Amino acid sequence: MSKTSIFAPLKHRPYRMLFTGQLFSDLGTWLDMLALGILVAYTWNMGPAELAALTIVMGLPWVVIGPFAAVWADRLPRKGLMIFCDLLRMLIVLGFVVAPNLYVLLALVFFKELFSAMFDPARQGAIRTLVPEEVLLQASSLSQLSLNVTKVAAPVFGGIIIAASSPSFVFILEAVLFLFSMMFISRLPHMPKAMAEEAAEPGTAKRESVFWKHFKEGLRFIGENRVLATAIILMAVRFFLIFLYDGLLVLWGKEVGLPEEYFGVLLGAVGFGTVLGTLAVGQWNFWSPKPIQMMAVTGAISGIGILILALGSYQVIPSHPALWVTLFFFVGFIGAGSAVPYGYVLQKETPSAIIGRVTGAANSISNLSMFAAPALGAVVAEWIGTGGVFAIAGTGTVLTGLFALLAVRKAEAKREYAGKVDGLHG
């Protein structure tokens, strides 16, 4: 178990600037989640179809364009690219304020998410470049902490602002956050391009062939690295199973008899559990030699929590608000046991020169799995009920973790056997 504090990377000024810039960027990324929905549904009096379109446009760049955009995160200077993405996102969210209709708003949202999908791989690459190897795990954990905290806190903060003012004020504040992000990232030291330019040859065709070569290198690296591929697949399956039931939480709450005012408490419990779990997993990193096993075990345990939610839906266990708040906290806390090791694997297993492309491909795989899950969950709920969806998700989460654990142990046994055979013949 490492005695290095999770906050140790902040002693290094370059990482401190990067982390602060990321914190402001993450706040800006998530601040408008509620405000955009309020603008469409309440200000413009639109319905489910328009809200669905907004959700799709938010995710589309990460799935379709993110892996291609991530190539540029490895081809361009990372500091300049992050500043460029912050600048354009700042201008785009100011455009939200004056957007005259849904079509313009959707176009602006699309481009904001596109530049977010470019910012993230560049940030991952900057961590790999700036942080000493001995505190890479802690730096990755802090980065995950920023994401987890802002994903929960920023929409809530946005909702408070809307209640006191309007969505437009949220968008203006969001622009200020991206400005602050730019200010801190501009104080980073110069980081050279991750990839040296290939020998320049005239003609667009050559440039395109180089681009596709670099794009395929990222995918090939994932396919050839068993640990990295396993971590990405595990997280993609986990995200799919989470989003299978995520949209049904309101129906689940009605079935267990929770008053509507408890939903905010439940979400807060998940967020608080995730934050504490991230701090704990980042600090007590006994798992660092075997991150896949950590992901598998915590995944299986969190699946048990989801199965208990299914039992509540079927009225098998007595329903009490304190029980559900505690359980949601537990699921969030244990969930960090997968998220933090996953981020560490991305950093540890990937060379700096290609981490942008690997991150972009991993984000695309995860977001693609999330795209299909909510619609499938709704269809299955119509067929076997809300509790059935939670039961499927919980069982799938447990089995995925157990299968991954057995697969890793089998691979370790093979390596040990091969080592013994080599020793006999040596």
TrEMBL record:
Subcellular location: Cell membrane
Transmembrane segments: 21-45, 51-71, 91-111, 152-185, 227-250, 262-282, 294-317, 323-345, 365-384, 390-408
Pfam family, one: MFS_1
SUPFAM superfamilies tied to this protein: MFS general substrate transporter
Keyword Membrane assigned: yes
Domain Major facilitator superfamily (MFS) profile stretches: 14-412
Main subcellular location: membrane
Entry's Gene Ontology molecular function annotations: transmembrane transporter activity
Membrane topology annotation: Multi-pass membrane protein
Keywords noted in UniProt: Cell membrane, Membrane, Transmembrane, Transmembrane helix, Transport
Record-level GO cellular component terms: plasma membrane
PANTHER family per UniProt: INTEGRAL MEMBRANE EFFLUX PROTEIN-RELATED, MAJOR FACILITATOR SUPERFAMILY ASSOCIATED DOMAIN-CONTAINING PROTEIN
Protein's name in the database: Major facilitator superfamily (MFS) profile domain-containing protein
Organism: Tumebacillus avium
